[in-house]
# Entry
Amino acid sequence: MTYSLRRLFATILVYCSPDNPRELWEQFEDSMSEDFKILANIKAKDIHLAVLNHINDILHSMGRDINEFNLVSENITSSKMANEAKEAYFERNIIVINEDLLLHRKVNTEQKIAYDIILKRVFANESGAFFIDGPGGSGKTFLYCALLATVRSKGYVALATTTSGVTASILPGKQSSLASLICDAKLIVWDEVSMAKKNMIEALDSLLKDIMNINVLFGGKVIVFGGDFRQTLPVVRSGKKEDFIRESILNSEIWNELEKLRLSENMRAKTDLSFCEYLI
# Structure
Protein backbone atom coordinates (compact mmCIF):
# COMPACT_ATOMS: atom_id res chain seq x y z
CA MET A 1 0.00 0.00 0.00
CA THR A 2 2.75 2.46 0.97
CA TYR A 3 4.75 1.56 -2.13
CA SER A 4 1.64 2.27 -4.22
CA LEU A 5 1.22 5.66 -2.54
CA ARG A 6 4.73 6.67 -3.53
CA ARG A 7 4.12 5.54 -7.10
CA LEU A 8 0.83 7.46 -7.16
CA PHE A 9 2.59 10.54 -5.80
CA ALA A 10 5.24 10.34 -8.52
CA THR A 11 2.55 9.87 -11.16
CA ILE A 12 0.69 12.96 -9.93
CA LEU A 13 3.90 15.01 -10.07
CA VAL A 14 4.60 14.01 -13.66
CA TYR A 15 1.17 13.87 -15.23
CA CYS A 16 -1.08 16.13 -13.12
CA SER A 17 1.22 19.13 -12.62
CA PRO A 18 0.01 20.06 -9.09
CA ASP A 19 0.16 23.78 -8.26
CA ASN A 20 2.13 23.21 -5.06
CA PRO A 21 4.12 19.91 -5.06
CA ARG A 22 5.86 20.78 -1.76
CA GLU A 23 2.54 21.25 0.04
CA LEU A 24 1.36 17.89 -1.32
CA TRP A 25 4.59 16.25 -0.13
CA GLU A 26 4.31 17.73 3.36
CA GLN A 27 0.68 16.62 3.62
CA PHE A 28 1.33 12.97 2.70
CA GLU A 29 4.97 12.34 3.66
CA ASP A 30 4.00 10.49 6.82
CA SER A 31 1.62 8.17 4.97
CA MET A 32 4.27 7.43 2.35
CA SER A 33 6.81 6.51 5.05
CA GLU A 34 4.91 3.79 6.92
CA ASP A 35 6.82 0.79 5.53
CA PHE A 36 10.24 2.23 6.34
CA LYS A 37 9.17 2.91 9.93
CA ILE A 38 9.06 -0.83 10.67
CA LEU A 39 12.81 -1.12 10.09
CA ALA A 40 14.87 -1.24 13.25
CA ASN A 41 17.75 1.15 13.90
CA ILE A 42 16.76 3.68 11.23
CA LYS A 43 16.49 7.34 12.17
CA ALA A 44 13.71 9.73 11.13
CA LYS A 45 16.02 11.67 8.80
CA ASP A 46 17.06 8.43 7.09
CA ILE A 47 13.40 7.44 6.62
CA HIS A 48 12.82 10.89 5.11
CA LEU A 49 15.68 10.37 2.65
CA ALA A 50 14.69 6.77 1.90
CA VAL A 51 11.19 7.84 0.86
CA LEU A 52 12.51 10.69 -1.29
CA ASN A 53 15.05 8.39 -2.92
CA HIS A 54 12.42 5.80 -3.74
CA ILE A 55 10.15 8.46 -5.26
CA ASN A 56 13.17 9.66 -7.22
CA ASP A 57 13.76 6.13 -8.55
CA ILE A 58 10.15 6.03 -9.76
CA LEU A 59 10.48 9.47 -11.34
CA HIS A 60 13.66 8.39 -13.13
CA SER A 61 11.71 5.52 -14.70
CA MET A 62 9.37 8.22 -16.06
CA GLY A 63 12.22 10.35 -17.36
CA ARG A 64 12.02 12.98 -14.61
CA ASP A 65 14.01 13.90 -11.49
CA ILE A 66 12.74 14.75 -8.01
CA ASN A 67 14.81 17.94 -7.81
CA GLU A 68 12.67 19.44 -10.59
CA PHE A 69 9.71 19.66 -8.21
CA ASN A 70 11.36 21.42 -5.22
CA LEU A 71 9.72 19.14 -2.65
CA VAL A 72 12.44 19.93 -0.11
CA SER A 73 15.13 22.56 0.21
CA GLU A 74 18.09 20.19 -0.15
CA ASN A 75 19.23 18.52 -3.36
CA ILE A 76 18.32 14.81 -3.37
CA THR A 77 20.95 12.24 -4.28
CA SER A 78 20.85 8.51 -3.63
CA SER A 79 22.35 7.43 -0.31
CA LYS A 80 23.67 4.09 0.82
CA MET A 81 21.27 4.14 3.77
CA ALA A 82 18.28 4.69 1.49
CA ASN A 83 19.32 1.91 -0.87
CA GLU A 84 19.87 -0.49 2.03
CA ALA A 85 16.50 0.38 3.55
CA LYS A 86 14.77 -0.20 0.23
CA GLU A 87 16.53 -3.53 -0.28
CA ALA A 88 15.60 -4.62 3.24
CA TYR A 89 11.98 -3.68 2.66
CA PHE A 90 11.73 -5.75 -0.51
CA GLU A 91 13.38 -8.77 1.17
CA ARG A 92 10.85 -8.61 4.00
CA ASN A 93 7.94 -8.49 1.59
CA ILE A 94 8.74 -11.23 -0.92
CA ILE A 95 5.55 -12.93 -2.11
CA VAL A 96 5.84 -16.70 -2.52
CA ILE A 97 4.00 -17.87 -5.62
CA ASN A 98 1.81 -20.98 -5.48
CA GLU A 99 4.15 -22.92 -7.75
CA ASP A 100 7.03 -22.49 -5.29
CA LEU A 101 4.84 -23.49 -2.36
CA LEU A 102 4.52 -26.94 -3.94
CA LEU A 103 8.24 -27.52 -4.54
CA HIS A 104 8.68 -29.52 -1.33
CA ARG A 105 6.33 -32.17 -2.73
CA LYS A 106 8.64 -32.78 -5.68
CA VAL A 107 11.96 -33.35 -3.89
CA ASN A 108 13.68 -36.71 -4.22
CA THR A 109 14.74 -38.88 -1.27
CA GLU A 110 18.13 -37.22 -0.70
CA GLN A 111 16.68 -33.73 -1.05
CA LYS A 112 13.88 -34.62 1.38
CA ILE A 113 16.38 -35.75 4.02
CA ALA A 114 18.28 -32.46 3.74
CA TYR A 115 15.04 -30.44 3.59
CA ASP A 116 13.70 -32.02 6.79
CA ILE A 117 16.98 -31.71 8.73
CA ILE A 118 17.42 -28.03 7.88
CA LEU A 119 13.81 -26.98 8.50
CA LYS A 120 13.76 -28.83 11.81
CA ARG A 121 16.54 -26.49 12.98
CA VAL A 122 14.81 -23.43 11.53
CA PHE A 123 11.46 -23.98 13.21
CA ALA A 124 12.97 -25.19 16.48
CA ASN A 125 15.03 -21.97 16.69
CA GLU A 126 18.22 -24.03 16.82
CA SER A 127 21.52 -23.21 15.13
CA GLY A 128 22.82 -25.10 12.15
CA ALA A 129 25.54 -24.64 9.55
CA PHE A 130 25.29 -26.97 6.57
CA PHE A 131 27.11 -27.67 3.33
CA ILE A 132 25.10 -29.20 0.48
CA ASP A 133 27.52 -31.26 -1.60
CA GLY A 134 26.51 -32.40 -5.04
CA PRO A 135 27.67 -32.31 -8.65
CA GLY A 136 25.96 -30.15 -11.24
CA GLY A 137 22.45 -31.37 -11.92
CA SER A 138 21.92 -33.00 -8.53
CA GLY A 139 19.20 -30.54 -7.55
CA LYS A 140 20.96 -28.17 -5.15
CA THR A 141 19.17 -25.11 -6.53
CA PHE A 142 15.82 -26.90 -6.41
CA LEU A 143 16.42 -27.72 -2.74
CA TYR A 144 17.34 -24.10 -1.95
CA CYS A 145 14.15 -22.87 -3.63
CA ALA A 146 12.02 -25.33 -1.68
CA LEU A 147 13.62 -24.27 1.61
CA LEU A 148 13.29 -20.55 0.90
CA ALA A 149 9.67 -20.87 -0.22
CA THR A 150 8.67 -22.83 2.87
CA VAL A 151 10.31 -20.44 5.33
CA ARG A 152 9.01 -17.32 3.58
CA SER A 153 5.49 -18.74 3.34
CA LYS A 154 5.41 -18.87 7.15
CA GLY A 155 6.05 -15.13 7.29
CA TYR A 156 9.75 -15.38 8.17
CA VAL A 157 12.74 -13.73 6.52
CA ALA A 158 14.92 -16.04 4.43
CA LEU A 159 17.93 -14.65 2.56
CA ALA A 160 19.71 -16.05 -0.48
CA THR A 161 22.94 -14.99 -2.13
CA THR A 162 25.78 -16.33 -4.24
CA THR A 163 29.51 -15.76 -4.04
CA SER A 164 29.25 -13.34 -6.97
CA GLY A 165 26.84 -11.25 -4.88
CA VAL A 166 28.93 -11.09 -1.74
CA THR A 167 32.26 -9.47 -0.92
CA ALA A 168 33.69 -8.85 2.50
CA SER A 169 33.96 -5.15 1.68
CA ILE A 170 30.19 -4.69 1.42
CA LEU A 171 29.14 -6.60 4.52
CA PRO A 172 26.84 -4.19 6.37
CA GLY A 173 27.58 -2.28 9.53
CA LYS A 174 26.02 -3.51 12.75
CA GLN A 175 23.49 -0.66 12.98
CA SER A 176 22.38 -0.70 9.33
CA SER A 177 18.97 -1.78 8.08
CA LEU A 178 20.63 -4.70 6.28
CA ALA A 179 22.15 -5.84 9.56
CA SER A 180 18.68 -5.70 11.09
CA LEU A 181 17.38 -7.79 8.20
CA ILE A 182 20.11 -10.38 8.71
CA CYS A 183 19.36 -10.42 12.43
CA ASP A 184 15.73 -11.31 11.70
CA ALA A 185 16.56 -13.97 9.09
CA LYS A 186 15.50 -17.50 9.97
CA LEU A 187 17.52 -18.96 7.12
CA ILE A 188 20.50 -17.83 5.03
CA VAL A 189 21.45 -19.66 1.82
CA TRP A 190 24.80 -19.04 0.13
CA ASP A 191 25.29 -20.87 -3.16
CA GLU A 192 28.55 -21.21 -5.10
CA VAL A 193 30.54 -21.04 -1.87
CA SER A 194 33.16 -23.26 -3.53
CA MET A 195 34.18 -20.13 -5.48
CA ALA A 196 34.56 -18.01 -2.34
CA LYS A 197 37.84 -17.35 -0.59
CA LYS A 198 37.84 -18.55 2.99
CA ASN A 199 38.28 -15.03 4.40
CA MET A 200 34.84 -14.11 3.01
CA ILE A 201 33.16 -16.94 4.93
CA GLU A 202 35.17 -16.11 8.04
CA ALA A 203 34.14 -12.44 7.72
CA LEU A 204 30.49 -13.50 7.57
CA ASP A 205 31.00 -15.63 10.68
CA SER A 206 32.48 -12.65 12.55
CA LEU A 207 29.71 -10.34 11.34
CA LEU A 208 26.91 -12.67 12.44
CA LYS A 209 28.51 -13.19 15.84
CA ASP A 210 28.71 -9.42 16.21
CA ILE A 211 25.15 -8.76 15.02
CA MET A 212 23.65 -11.52 17.17
CA ASN A 213 25.97 -10.69 20.09
CA ILE A 214 26.79 -14.35 20.66
CA ASN A 215 30.04 -16.26 20.17
CA VAL A 216 28.51 -19.22 18.34
CA LEU A 217 29.28 -20.30 14.78
CA PHE A 218 27.54 -17.85 12.42
CA GLY A 219 25.83 -16.22 15.38
CA GLY A 220 23.61 -19.25 15.90
CA LYS A 221 21.90 -18.75 12.55
CA VAL A 222 20.74 -21.57 10.30
CA ILE A 223 22.94 -21.14 7.25
CA VAL A 224 23.14 -23.38 4.20
CA PHE A 225 26.18 -23.33 1.93
CA GLY A 226 26.28 -25.07 -1.41
CA GLY A 227 28.72 -25.56 -4.22
CA ASP A 228 30.69 -28.03 -6.27
CA PHE A 229 34.44 -28.19 -5.72
CA ARG A 230 34.65 -30.50 -8.75
CA GLN A 231 33.77 -27.54 -10.99
CA THR A 232 34.74 -24.29 -9.28
CA LEU A 233 37.38 -23.04 -6.85
CA PRO A 234 38.43 -19.52 -5.78
CA VAL A 235 40.25 -17.47 -8.39
CA VAL A 236 43.92 -16.95 -7.56
CA ARG A 237 45.95 -14.97 -10.07
CA SER A 238 48.67 -17.20 -11.58
CA GLY A 239 47.82 -19.77 -8.91
CA LYS A 240 48.33 -23.52 -8.91
CA LYS A 241 46.02 -26.23 -7.59
CA GLU A 242 47.43 -25.99 -4.07
CA ASP A 243 46.88 -22.20 -4.10
CA PHE A 244 43.21 -22.61 -5.00
CA ILE A 245 42.69 -25.13 -2.22
CA ARG A 246 44.60 -23.03 0.32
CA GLU A 247 42.28 -20.06 -0.33
CA SER A 248 39.04 -22.06 -0.27
CA ILE A 249 36.71 -22.83 2.62
CA LEU A 250 38.20 -26.35 2.60
CA ASN A 251 41.26 -24.87 4.32
CA SER A 252 39.26 -22.96 6.94
CA GLU A 253 38.58 -24.18 10.47
CA ILE A 254 34.92 -23.49 9.72
CA TRP A 255 34.84 -26.33 7.18
CA ASN A 256 35.13 -29.00 9.85
CA GLU A 257 32.24 -27.45 11.79
CA LEU A 258 29.79 -27.65 8.88
CA GLU A 259 27.30 -30.50 8.70
CA LYS A 260 27.66 -32.15 5.29
CA LEU A 261 24.54 -33.21 3.38
CA ARG A 262 25.10 -35.02 0.09
CA LEU A 263 23.07 -35.08 -3.11
CA SER A 264 24.22 -37.72 -5.60
CA GLU A 265 21.21 -38.39 -7.85
CA ASN A 266 21.67 -36.45 -11.07
CA MET A 267 18.28 -35.03 -12.00
CA ARG A 268 19.43 -33.82 -15.43
CA ALA A 269 20.91 -37.11 -16.66
CA LYS A 270 18.85 -39.84 -15.03
CA THR A 271 18.94 -42.03 -18.13
CA ASP A 272 22.73 -41.86 -18.58
CA LEU A 273 24.07 -43.76 -15.57
CA SER A 274 27.68 -43.81 -16.78
CA PHE A 275 27.68 -40.01 -17.08
CA CYS A 276 26.14 -39.66 -13.61
CA GLU A 277 28.88 -41.86 -12.15
CA TYR A 278 31.52 -39.83 -14.00
CA LEU A 279 30.21 -36.59 -12.45
CA ILE A 280 30.23 -38.05 -8.95
